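Model it.
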Amino acid sequence: MDPISGSLGVLVAVILIFEGIFPFVSPSLWKDMFKRLVKMSNGQIRFIGLSSMLFGVVLLYIFS
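Modeled.
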């Protein structure tokens, strides 16, 4: 396996672990969060997504 495939696999695994922590620890709060998310406008959701991506790019720049 080449290093890029291995790193990508590790990245996906870590993302899945972090994504699963909140619903595992507090499923009721997780469901409430999604209820509030459904009530948001598309613009608000896009802003959250954009902010998350930019934060990820900044972290990637810092740690690379």
